[in-house]
Amino acid sequence: MEETGTIDIKTINEKIEKESAFVDLLMLEMNKVIVGQKHMVERLLIGLLGQGHILLEGVPGLAKTLAINTLAQAVDGSFSRIQFTPDLLPADVTGTLIYNMKVNDFSIKKGPIFANFVLADEINRAPAKVQSALLEAMQEKQVTIGDETFVLDKPFLVMATQNPVEQEGTYPLPEAQVDRFMLKTVIDYPKIDEEQLIMRANMKGAWETVKSVVSTAQILNAQKAVREVYMDEKIEKYILDIIFATRYPEKYRLPALKPLISFGASPRGSINLATAAKCYAFIKRRGYVIPEDVRAVVYDVLRHRIGITYEAEAENVTSEDIINKIVNEIEVP
Q1: How far apart are CA 30 and CA 57, in angstroms?
Q2: pTM of the full predicted structure?
Q3: pLDDT score at 78
Q4: pLDDT at 275
Q5: Mind listing the pLDDT tens digit for each residue in 275-310?
Q6: Which end of the chain is more exposed for a tag (fewer CB within 10 A), N or C?
Q7: What single DSSP character describes residue 296?
Q8: What is the C-alpha separation between 81 and 104, in angstroms, rounded?
Q9: pLDDT per residue over 150-194, tens digit each?
């Protein structure tokens, strides 16, 4: 894999290896506080490097809040947390105009969205108005308050969490809005030996302090470097085959999936799958994408982008089962 036309893989590889040196430092720093949950930490980095956002689903107490807080400390970025509740207003997220009696005029009070790392805790607890205010800021990377528009800080990562346990008093995110999230990661319980370490550390009450080991400037450089990771045309075709198989399964020798899928992944799906695969290669300190990179991120990128029918629900088929069948059927380049 030396020369491909005018592309010099060796040079790209050396550059990426140099640019991605901070990844190990960052992981090491986060592991001081986060026990296990390697999958979640990697996905947070993919979201950060790919300039996307993450939706985390997991039962309470799995260190979702702690993870993004630790990442903000390790990256030397600003962090804010919004606890979503049914009585929250869009202005509570974005900010509002406040009347200032001294100057007899309105002044702008910025909301918690103005931070590098924003934790939207239990996003499905807030009504649609608040959800759409947050999602608009995520998409446009800017906020309008009154007649002024403010560009949000860079890097900008929103990590929204939702609790799959309770359905009462929640407002599920509409499919079209969930599509704005680059990744949807489902977190599981820690392993027994990991939980033993968590328990011990809590009993001692002595957590290690997290130092900032990476600057925001380094992250912005890394975001540019990720785009330079080389992706062969065969890998692009592989990604498109996976996406198109979610839309037209019968064309990919998967006619049995047709009645189970109500809608397939959107073009955002193919863009995000390609970006996430490049980010994964970057984290693994490689300057080119291999099929394993695509397979590593495909579930997180597509699980919230495939609609399942009532028939699939009746048969207990999840979007993950569908992705599994597609990935096993599509020929690997």
Answers
A1: 20
A2: 0.86
A3: 86
A4: 94
A5: 999 999 999 888 889 999 999 999 999 988 888 889
A6: N
A7: H
A8: 32
A9: 888 888 888 888 877 666 656 777 776 788 899 998 888 888 888
Instruction: Map out the domains of the chain with their CATH numbers.
Output: 22-202+214-219 (3.40.50.300), 229-329 (1.10.8.80)
Contact criterion met (CB below 8 Å) for 36 and 87:
no
Which residues neighbour 217 within 8 Å (Cβ) at sequence distance 6 or greater? Answer: none
β strands within 175-214, DSSP E: 183-186
Residue 10 φ/ψ, nearest 5 degrees: -60, -45
What is the spatial distance between Cα 70 and Cα 38, in angstroms, rounded to a whole number? 14
Long-range contacts of 140-149 (CB under 8 A, 24+ apart): 143/94, 143/95, 143/111, 143/113, 143/114, 145/94, 145/95, 145/96, 145/97, 145/108, 145/110, 146/97, 146/106, 146/108, 148/108
Picking from 95, 185, 165, the residue whose alpha carbon sits closest to that of residue 124 is: 165
Residue 106: other Cβ atoms inside 10 A? 13
